[in-house]
Design brief:
- This protein has 339 residues and is an alpha/beta fold.
- It has a domain of 232 residues: CofD-like domains (Rossmann fold, 3-Layer(aba) Sandwich).
- It has 13 helices and 14 strands.
- The protein has a 7-stranded parallel beta sheet, sandwiched between helices. Strands 7-6-8 form a 3-stranded antiparallel beta sheet. Strands 3-4 form a two-stranded antiparallel sheet.
- Strand 11 and strand 12 form a beta hairpin.
- The radius of gyration is 20 Å and the shape is globular.
- 44% of the residues are buried.
- The C terminus is likely disordered.
- The protein binds guanosine-5'-diphosphate.
Length: 339
């Protein structure tokens, strides 16, 4: 697939980030602070969404919104900073379900989203509204406005995603994942338009869980096809460092599914879609064995400076990959003319 991105697109084009919640959100923030904010488009996983206590909840979307708005709780890793828990305490006193924590401040976004959706508006409408209210100038969108719901197959049954992730704390061994509704779901029109934009500078698949967070995207046939046909370079940032996930169940799930916890497995996961892979310095020995262009750098993002530096490096790498492919395709073109 040739990636003809013009020089002009390289200096002014948009960047699409595809991500889940916490890990992906870190790099999305780096991109937001590095690029002109209106150049960044973020498409977020909605496979984790669910209905709970009568509310429509979109955990990854909210993590990205809170992160870009600078109101996320960095210590806890989810929810809002300066949170209080009066509602949860009162709910417990009422004998209500308390396995999924909803902070008092956080509650507002779920109540508002539920109201929007009940009025017949879309999740895209709500996210655009919430981003505006939170003062975010990047465009944030869900991967789809249709219902896609992740289910985790375990021994003897199946769990809805949040029951597995939050209530059971990822303890049961994963035998398979199912993304109910994905076959028929349409990616949002804006997402498809972005992928088809000839001036799109890069697609960055953030270091999100490739199975739980990116899996729902890839389970939508139309999205897979649009990604494969995008003329922009598709760069994957690996969530695996030295055979481990930085956080969360990525490595555990890979082991349970019989997949070696290596960057080669990450490359294989995105084969036919990715044009470049970014791996950590600690895995430099794996670079030579990978069958696509690789950038080896520090991918661990501890502070804001790490997020910005990695974002800048990923964009520079994307431009290099696009230029290399340009050179290859024009050489091929010239060769064809001579023949
Ligand atoms: P979730 O939806 O909130 O679970 O978050 P994501 O799916 O977006 O991110 C989870 C993944 O992020 C895990 O596989 C982690 O290994 C990865 N991750 C978290 N922080 C970092 C980091 O600083 N660097 C890299 N390379 N990966 C990270």
């Amino acid at each position: 697939m040739s990636k003809r991105v013009s020089k002009a697109a390289r200096s002014t084009g948009n960047v699409l980030a595809i991500c889940g919640g916490v890990g992906g959100g870190k790099l999305a923030l780096g991109l937001y602070l590095t690029l002109a904010p209106q150049r960044l488009i973020v498409a977020v996983n909605t496979g984790d969404d669910f209905e709970h206590l009568g509310l429509s909840i979109s955990p990854d979307v909210d993590t990205v919104l809170y992160t870009l708005a600078g109101v996320a709780d960095r210590e806890r890793g989810w929810g809002r900073a300066r949170e209080t828990w009066n509602f949860m305490a009162a709910l417990g006193e009422m004998g209500g379900e308390t396995w999924f924590q909803l902070g008092d401040r956080d509650l507002a976004i779920h109540v508002e989203r539920t109201r929007f959706l009940r009025e017949g508006k879309t999740l895209s409408d709500f996210i655009a509204h919430a981003a505006r209210q939170l003062g975010i100038s990047a465009r944030i969108m869900p991967m789809t406005d249709d219902n896609v719901r992740t289910f985790v197959e375990i021994d003897g049954g199946e769990l809805p995603f949040q029951r597995y992730f939050v209530e059971r704390r990822c303890a049961p061994a994963v035998r398979a994942l199912r993304f109910a509704g994905a076959e028929r779901a349409r990616p949002t029109t804006k997402l498809l338009e972005t992928l088809a934009d000839p001036a799109l500078r890069a697609v960055v698949i953030c270091p999100s869980n490739p199975y739980l967070s990116i899996g729902p995207f890839l389970a939508m046939p139309e999205l897979r096809q649009a990604l494969a046909h995008s003329r922009a370079p598709v760069i994957v940032v690996s969530p695996i460092i030295a055979g481990q996930a930085v956080k969360g169940p990525t490595a555990k799930i890979m082991t349970e599914l019989g997949i070696p916890v290596t960057n080669e497995s990450i490359a294989a996961r995105y084969r036919g879609l990715a044009d470049g892979l970014v791996i950590d310095n600690r895995d430099s020995n794996e670079a030579a064995g990978l069958d696509l262009p690789v950038l080896v750098t520090r991918t661990r993002m501890l502070d804001l400076a790490d997020r910005k530096r990695l974002a800048q490096e990923v964009i520079t790498f994307a431009d290099e990959v696009a230029a290399r492919e340009n050179a290859v395709s024009s050489r091929r073109h010239a060769g064809g003319r001579r023949a």
